[in-house]
């Protein structure tokens, strides 16, 4: 089964391997993704930091900026997080909404040729390959729910990024050593028990448990879904992304075989969708501190690569706006003072205002945003305050806060420009210049000695059940539970096997066994994807 999609990808792969092959051993990779972060966001964040603290003009990532990366979906130049991070993880561009899964062909629009026979094929990720082939520890840090597109891309496979029920089951079953993120409401009691039975520490909204747990395998989740923006979080209850990154490294680095860690500054993208400039800048600066933790570790460790790059741009934000036609004469106070004075994001402020009596609104805007409301502005906010839905109030506050600044936006959606790349390599073998998204995967695979393995591992661990069990009795059995996927029952001589979708647990002759990979079921083609080793196991 040939999965690489064109000669161009192969040539790029060979080029990266020859340029970046390293005499010294690389054991660890830390992939840092500030979701939805355009170059303009980074530039504005740096200015904002410098304005607020004149002694601190530079970001942690600044000395390591080395290139740009073009990200895209298989059939569209502007990607969403699911296919773009999927490409970093698998080397294959995919469709909007697809999580580490081969795309459906779209011949008129595909950017590179796509093989129709491979549609819906789960693709081995660099994280999974590191664990299976190298015995590496694996971890995820995110400020959104753990099942959101970017973390899911590392350890799950589906054509629908919204199927959190499928994705959560796969991620729990994929033997991740450390998961620190949002999503307490998503992790079920059954999943918690599965983890605890395998010696994981499992914590929900428990910062003391998170900080004091002495084991090396842990899931620690905060908030029902996404975590708050860094500016809005309660420091006594919710850790920063920098603290979570440091904790993940501490746990993962005990493995002598190395580790793969993905850290996502998730909420930068969310703020950009809302055009919430305060959230964008403060969450990026929080993410930059996490980058500092990763780089500091890598410099001391000397066997670690750190890659820092976004999955796509968002919002078309600009420093300077049509609101100020004299922008070229704008002072640093004109450009940065208003945002520097905001003590909450628009979302955080909307929650405070919504919970307070209307008569306190003017005082709250002055306290948290240094905005003295006009009568017209106050009346507009009062009307939104009366609504049960808090969305209009948040949008109104976002617009009000933005109007006091000199930032502009072109969209509430993703944008297609290249994203900035920063990297640390202990032997100065960073990827440099202009790269495409699949070349990032090639670079990581080469660094770990997996440059010829991802295709083979995909074929071995995600093989179609019809081929694995050819010549045996097998059938998909309806689970008889609404919305649940079928399971696979296989019989051969005296052996009886049951395989369950989105799980690594199978039942062989009435005994439960943990597989090294997760069984994937794609209802679109009614196919189970599973390890080839199961055939040999059935024939014993």
In words, what does this structure look like?
The chain has about 550 residues and is α/β, with parallel strands linked by helices. It is about 40% helix and about 20% strand. The chain has a 10-stranded mixed β-sheet, sandwiched between helices. A 7-stranded antiparallel β-sheet has the order 15-21-20-19-18-17-16. The protein has a two-stranded antiparallel sheet with strand order 9-12. α1 crosses α17 (about 435-445) and α9 (about 240-250) packs parallel to α11. It is globular, with a radius of gyration of 24 Å. The two termini are about 25 Å apart.
Could you describe the largest sheet, including whether it forms a barrel? 10 strands, mixed
Number of helices in the DSSP assignment? 20
Structural class: alpha/beta
pLDDT averaged residue by residue: 95
β-strand amount: 15-25%
Uncertain spans, ≥5 residues at pLDDT below 50? 17-22
Oligomer: single chain
| Shape category | globular
Number of strands: 21
Q: Output the radius of gyration.
A: 24 Å
Q: Helicity range of the residues?
A: 25-40%
**Spatial separation of the terminal alpha carbons:** 26 Å
